[in-house]
Amino acid sequence: MAAWRHMLPPEMKPAQARAALTAVIRRSLGAEGTFDAQGWLRIGLSGHQPALGENYISTGSLYLCSTALLPLGLPADDPFWRDPAVATTWEQAWSGKDIPADHALKRQL
Predict the structure, then answer these.
(1) Would you say residue 80 lies in a domain?
(2) Which of 10, 36, 55, 101 has CA 20 to 30 A from 94's CA?
(3) Per residue in 70-81, pLDDT tens?
(4) What is the Cα–Cα distance from 13 to 79, expressed in whole angstroms?
(5) Chain-centroid distance, C-alpha 30
(6) pTM of the model
C-alpha cells in the first residue's frame, strides 16, 4: 500500500518494493496447495498450512493478501514499474552488504 500511495521511506526505492512484492507473491501464491480444487485460497503462508490459522480467520480473511496487488493501479511510467530492479533488503543482507535496518512504517497509510 505504501508503494501505491507513494509513501515509501526515502531509503527504499519503488523498484526495490516491486522486487520484494514480486518475490512474496510468487512464493506465497505459487506454492502447491495454495488453492483448493475450486480455485479458492486456503489458509497458509506458502501452500495449505491450516495450523497457522487463528480461530477468527475465515475464507474472506485470506483475501486481505490482495492488497499486495494495489500497485497494479499505478501507471506504466511510475518509478515502481519503470525503474530497473533493485536488490531487496534480504538479498542485500544475505549477500553480506552492510545495510541499515528496515523498520516498520508508523505513518498512516
Answers:
(1) yes
(2) 10
(3) 899 999 999 999
(4) 8
(5) 13
(6) 0.78
Q: Phi then psi for 12, rounded to 5 degrees?
A: -110, 120
Q: DSSP secondary structure string, 79-95?
A: HHHHSPP---HHHHHHT
User: How many domains, the chain?
Assistant: 1
User: For residue 5, is it within any domain?
Assistant: no
SS3 for 100? coil
Return the residue matching grid coordinates 493478501.
65
Cell representation of residue 109: 497509510
In a domain, 76, yes or no: yes
DSSP label at residue 73: G
Of residues 101 and 14, the one with the higher pLDDT is 14
Owning domain of residue 72? 58-88
